[in-house]
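ligand=phosphoenolpyruvate
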Amino acid sequence: MLVTLSSEADPRRVQGELAALGLWSETVRGSKGAVHLLVPRHSAALDPQRILELPGVVDVAASPSPHPLVDALPRELEVAGRVFGGARPLLIAGPCSVESPDSIDAIAARVATEGASFLRGGAFKPRSSPYAFQGHGAPALRWLADAAAKHGLGVITEALDEGSVAPVAELADIVQVGSRNMQNFGLLRAVGASGRPALLKRGMAATVDEWLLAGEYLLHHGAPAVLFCERGVRGFDERARNLLDLGSVALLATEHGLPVVVDPSHAVGRSDLITPLSLAARAAGAAALMIETHDAPGEALSDGPQALGPSRFSELARAILAQDPEDKSA
Ligand code: PEP
Ligand code: MN
């Protein structure tokens, strides 16, 4: 049960009154600063009308949903002046890892010209092998943020562990939680507490409900917004690497009314299949696409085979943003 309070109400006093009625509750901050009290289902065996009569209570939603804060997310989310879920799709683009100040600057210039809204790039990389390139760490965050600012782009980058949340949140507009970390609850708490919007990659073996609950963790711990990002789940056939689950994208977009991000790069793992998958993602209702691109994919320090080179990226951007060819600033 979600109890919404008026802006003048003292949450502690209302909590005390609920406790007197035998109900345990927790304070949660909703989107747009509203204060709610969450009464867990096992504690909610009381007529909602009794609660509605308490001073300071303006609404009681007796929702059977286990993720009321996700349910309350708006269809459109504005971050860094860009709207996810509006009429125009957004492009998030950049390399797998931030490799040097010059290379990230050149990529930022190029993707900005092609109409991208956000620059992505990892400073702290989750790699399957401990011998693979792990990212340049904190200095790369600065290179990324400088390049984005210079070319008018927002910043998305990953916090790999609780220790990297503070430096990432300081410079990023959106903090990415990687697929391998979707159920790292300590990290979800820390990212939520950073107060930054989060981009939550779907775990590669996570159900949609587990994914939504991970989003609920972020919101419950203070994230002002969560963007759910589908990046492929483990299928039975590895020919096309992961299975890009566009059914779940359509489900989140239609049934849950969420602006969904799709990352075809990590799904299919090869550059020649990124454009068809991106178009399919849009058709399934994706609000934004996250695409890995590199100026010289053959020399990339990570994920080169899936990175789009300049001409392929340009073709993709045109195909995706074609609905509004005159305005690439969205
Ligand atoms: C990434 O986006 O850089 C990444 C590592 O993705 P994922 O967590 O989906 O594998
Ligand atoms: Mn990558």
